[in-house]
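Sample A.
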Amino acid sequence: MQIDLSHATLEVLSGVPVGFTLGLIGGGGSILAVPLMVYLVGVKDPHVAIGTSALAVAVNALTGLIQHARSGTVQWRCAAVFASCGVVGALCGAWLGKAMDGQSLLLLFAFLMIAVGIMMLRDHHESGHEDTSYTQKNIVKIASFGAGTGLLSGFFGIGGGFLIVPGLMASTHMPIINAVSTSLVAVAAFGISTAVSYVLSGYIDWGLAAFFILGGVIGTYSGSHCARVLCKKDGRLTTIFASIIFIVAGYIIWRGVHTL
């Protein structure tokens, strides 16, 4: 009984950083969840880890979305257009990605992340417009960025949130706190789409998902609060977002080089 309790505690604790990252920067959940499930919790089947993490990330994204919605920072109409087009793009991207070597995909994704991080730091002085919403002038741009982001997310298989926030900022010029909040709609949509396919294939550990989600709820609450505080400090949240991107990209490249 003690061993089960210890393992359950480990599962809850593993969910905390996933939820915190989602609440803070609107992404990074999947790229943290899968390694934590495999290497820390000890999930043997990678398919179970991917499916369970997709479910947990989707639920935690919805939890974070509720926290941000209470602050009034979610741009719902932009989210609806971006997420719906992103789901279509993700399905196409996943089909294309299966034709490439997995390690090559990871390395390409890492370099893409570095480029995104550099662009965000270059433009971090731009505060954006808080009243941003879609109009007849930018709805096509939002839809295009949504489809493109979804395509890349599905193609690389991980890291959708890292691309959604910059995509929202580039297509609407909204502040990063609004992009973080709004991105959670797309993160949840992508996660649910992935989770459903794994549920149908029987690749979900429901017990693990429950404990992981519990830890994630704690993390998303803390991360959302930190995001609201940091957004009031000029460029701080953008710098943190870009720094996390560089760290994850560096780790992916390091793992890629050592597996060659």
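Sample B, a different protein:
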Amino acid sequence: MNQVMPSLFLGHGSPMIAVETGPYVQFLQSLASQLPRRPRAIVLFSAHWEAVTQQVSRVESHYDTIYDFGGFPDELYRLTYPAPGDVTLADEISELLREAGLSSIPNPTRGLDHGAWVPLRHVFPDADIPVIAMSVNSRATGEVHYQIGKALASLRARDVLIIGSGGTVHNFRTMKFPEGEGADDWAVEFDEWVMRQIKDWNYEALGNARSTHPLGMHAAPTPEHYIPLLYAMGAADDTRQGKRIYHGYSHSNLSLNCWQFS
């Protein structure tokens, strides 16, 4: 019996990861070999695509590359990731959401932002696997995020890799430039709490972390980078098992922690 494709949460870090080397890039470059097989498609929720109503990319050909950042080296703006779309899968996703009582809007024009293409270019450098980009809604509850992921859980049995791309700790005001030495204790403490909740599959606590955890608002002063975790977690509601597959930080507290749900 074939192993079901996991869902993933990836801490995408800084756009500079696209051109850097080091332990995290090496992890991303090895990640495809750790999957049960090559995905037939990728569904990716990016922290950098926010919309009140769930949007589903319906790109008929290949994606444009969005450079949604400024002040970085010129080499970043020369990189492209022209992955193909898959309108059939996009329509199926919209139908799965409809069946779950969730609204969605197809988007035929949006390209891939850096929350998508930066990690993908290391994991699947040939850009030859169809991608469906998905928006996130920072105004919705954790329960809504989880239910959207849950609505797509059946795709995993058909070799579709579901990814949430963001960061559990993402606070620009606390990052150290240039790179600090080691990780800040408070960032590690928050991520250890996240790990305990995942182990217990307490997605309700994770969904309310910003309002109930003492470090929640410090770790995620805005929610868009944190909530992709809940989409990825919801996509594994049928199995409810999670493990951390990478533990690390950049700039002392920008979390690169990654999780696999299977």
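Observation for Sample B: Residues 132 and 158 are 15 Å apart (CA to CA).
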